[in-house]
Design brief:
Blueprint (H helix, E strand, L loop, with lengths): L18 H11 L6 E5 L5 H8 L3 E6 L2 H13 L4 E5 L11 E6 L6 H11 E11 L2 H13 L3 E8 L2 E3 L5 E3 L3 E7 L4
Parallel strand pairs: 1-2, 1-4, 2-3, 4-5
Antiparallel strand pairs: 5-9, 6-9, 7-8
InterPro entries: Cbl_synth_MTase_CbiT, Cobalamin_biosynth_MTase, Methyltranfer_dom, SAM-dependent_MTases_sf
Protein name: Precorrin-6Y C5,15-methyltransferase (Decarboxylating) subunit CbiT
Pfam families: Methyltransf_31 (PF13847)
Length: 184
């Protein structure tokens, strides 16, 4: 399987989940052929595209018009079939069941998104989120416990890359947190 490098994506002013965080997040989601995958706060579509290339049926939700346009462009570039929803989570999310969900951006609606997932994420479904701020990480962690998710794992990833003259440039530290929806 080929993973897509960051520079291959069409970019704009919308945040993109970087390569090392993207591959780890997809690994935590255990994405595979036939999964029904919801990407909330899809940004440029990097997670959605990689998920589609793994064989998942993908719904990408993004509220920013530029992001929606970038998801369309990237989806065409990498020849993926993604259902793109321009709107806000959870009010514009489809009333259907998913077995995997990624939250890259919540627009401050984490509590309401969890209410949506109570009905729309299947029992045993995997939820994974990426967070930059401790506040959002903490809220997500509390919501996972309050909604009886199990197998909760949290990781802080700090990475740097070497630029063209040999200096290391740091990326934002990112928290990756994942849980499995309980069967009760």
């Amino acid at each position: 399987m080929k993973w897509i490098k960051d520079e291959e994506f069409i970019r704009g002013n919308i945040p993109m989940t970087k390569f090392n965080i993207r591959t780890l997040s997809i690994a935590y989601l255990s994405l595979k052929e036939g999964d029904r995958f919801l990407d909330i706060g899809a940004g440029t579509g990097s997670i959605s595209i990689e998920a589609a290339l793994q064989g998942a049926k993908v719904w990408a939700v993004e509220r920013e018009k530029e992001g929606v346009d970038l998801i369309h462009q990237n989806s065409q570039k990498f020849n993926t079939d993604i259902t793109i929803i321009e709107g806000h989570a959870p009010k514009d999310l489809p009333n259907m069941k998913f077995n995997k969900c990624f939250i890259g951006g919540s627009g401050g609606n984490l509590k309401d998104i969890f209410q949506y997932l109570d009905n729309n994420l299947e029992d045993g479904g995997i939820l994974c989120g990426n967070f930059i701020t401790l506040k959002n990480l903490n809220q997500f962690s509390i919501l996972l416990k309050d909604h009886n998710y199990r197998e909760i794992e949290t990781q802080l990833i700090q990475s740097s890359y070497m630029d063209h003259i040999g200096l290391l440039r740091g990326n934002n530290p990112i928290f990756i947190i994942k849980g499995v929806k309980s069967h009760d």
